[in-house]
Write a structure and sequence with these properties.
The protein is of the alpha+beta class. The chain has 13 helices and 20 strands. The longest helix is centred in the N-terminal third of the chain and has 21 residues.
């Protein structure tokens, strides 16, 4: 039975008193700040970025060669950006799903999926090896249909198909018409604690980490790579770039990503009686299969994290803390939440935030080198960086080593995606695509001329 209506409560306004803060980062357990770089320094490998890509690169570099000196610099705090504010879905997919990967890399999709599985296994092994307390747990991935035309999409999925009664027996929502249950390809995690744990693991291996050390310029001189910072120059034999959504020190790749803002709400903890009204005892990570989709999961303390749907691009590729808070999106997310779970009427959200995702035109990561092979980069994860960043780190280290490996021979690694156009074309194209995807969701999934054109050019994506 639903609780009595709460005075002053509304489905669209349940977020209004939520803290404008990231749930994962809003904890007294956050690690103490590390000292910034204090003066000119020389190292074997400089890693730029204290998110998952940079942290995995530092760890794997020391594991490959314990004698190599590794310095990681981060402009703000370890894990403060996308790595600490995502939904905590750690997927085995390296290609943003089988269909997206198969359409772009048909000859190697089976290899990529095997590499993705091995990558997820390796993440779990590292969490165990270093005792990282991040609530890492394998979980089923449940995709749900909320419109009739989506049922057949799921019926053709390789995962286990569930009819309406079967899916509602797992998670009780009146909006569910069918589901597809995938197993072994997903883990759920507290992403901030994972980042903090990886930083401690890196330091235990001998990596030096400097926070509050932004890099303003990257250049080559005297056979060394030089990174300009406020404290002086960091000189290195090799550099690995994990800047992702933020402007890369390599200007040549800046047009290959755009920052798209995603927003998230987190509820207050659900009581046992509230949890009983929705089931969800298998702890699956859930998404719906619309073009504009929601993703959601239960946290360790029985909150529901609910995000997605709107993907907001700001003119000029601007990244600004002001973009983290978007009332119109929070109201829409809140309303959609209570449409999905009307039995939770009266529940309130405690946290609301947003952050930038680095998106590429192929919707999965790309890789490359510069400065004669002394600099490597990985970017464009498009929301899959929690898991795929470790693979990206392996690729960067392979590229810096300069010897071909099975990873560097992959078409996915050898071929870069098409760049986004400069402004104002980028903004116009994103807005047109967004409107077309909304129209497709209202029109039984039928794609208009613009989306069909993108498909023909190899730039389309059906999430």
């Amino acid at each position: 039975m639903s609780p009595a209506p709460v005075r002053g409560w509304s489905p669209a306004g349940a977020w209004a008193e939520a803290e404008p803060a990231v749930h994962w980062l809003d904890t007294p357990d956050r690690t103490a700040p590390r000292e910034p770089l204090s003066g000119p320094t020389d190292t074997d490998l400089a890693v730029v970025g204290g998110g998952f890509t940079g942290l995995w690169t530092a760890i794997l570099a020391k594991q490959r060669d314990p004698g190599r000196d590794v310095v990681l610099v981060e402009g703000q705090r370890v894990g403060w950006a996308a790595s600490g504010r995502n939904g905590g879905f750690c997927s085995a997919s390296l290609t943003h799903g089988h269909e997206n990967g198969a359409s772009r890399f048909p000859a190697e999709i089976d290899v990529l999926e095997q590499l993705g599985t091995e990558n997820l296994d390796a993440i779990e092994a590292t969490v165990g090896e270093f005792g990282i307390d991040c609530d890492f747990r394998r979980a089923a991935a449940l995709s749900v249909a909320t419109h009739r035309h989506q049922v057949e999409w799921l019926r053709n999925d390789s995962a286990e198909f569930l009819d309406r009664d079967q899916v509602r027996a797992l998670v009780n929502s009146p909006t569910y018409l069918a589901g597809a249950l995938g197993r072994n390809g997903l883990a759920l995690v507290d992403p901030a604690r994972l980042a903090w744990g990886l930083a401690r693991a890196a330091e235990s291996l001998g990596v030096t980490i400097h926070e509050r050390t932004p890099v303003s310029r990257l250049r080559r001189a005297g056979g060394r790579m030089l990174l300009d910072t406020p404290a002086g120059t960091l000189a290195a034999r090799a550099v690995a770039l994990g800047t992702n959504a933020f402007p890369s020190p390599l200007r040549r790749i800046r047009l290959h990503t755009i920052p798209v803002y995603d927003h998230v709400l987190v509820t207050e903890p659900l009581t046992a009686s509230r949890r009983a009204t929705i089931g969800w005892e298998n702890g699956a990570g859930i998404d719906d299969v619309g073009n504009q989709f929601h993703y959601y999961r239960m946290t360790a303390d029985h909150r529901i994290l609910w995000g997605g749907y709107d993907a907001i691009y700001h003119y000029g590729r601007r990244i600004d803390p002001a973009h983290d808070q978007r009332p119109a999106t929070f109201a829409r997310l809140s309303e959609h939440f209570f449409e999905t779970f009307p039995q939770l009427e009266g529940l309130r959200f405690t946290h609301r935030w947003g952050g930038a995702i680095d998106t590429s035109t192929r919707f999965c990561a790309f890789f490359g080198t510069a400065h004669g092979g002394s600099v490597a980069y990985a970017a464009g994860y498009t929301g899959l960086g929690v898991g795929a960043s470790r693979f990206g780190a392996e690729v960067m280290l392979d590229l810096l080593a300069g010897k071909p490996t099975p990873r560097t021979r992959l078409e996915m690694v050898r071929r870069r995606p098409a760049p986004f156009p400069p402004e104002p074309l980028a903004y116009a194209a994103v807005q047109l695509t967004r409107r077309s995807l909304q129209k497709a969701d209202r029109n039984e999934g039928r794609r208009d001329l613009w989306l069909r054109t993108l498909d023909r050019l190899g730039l389309g994506f059906d999430s």
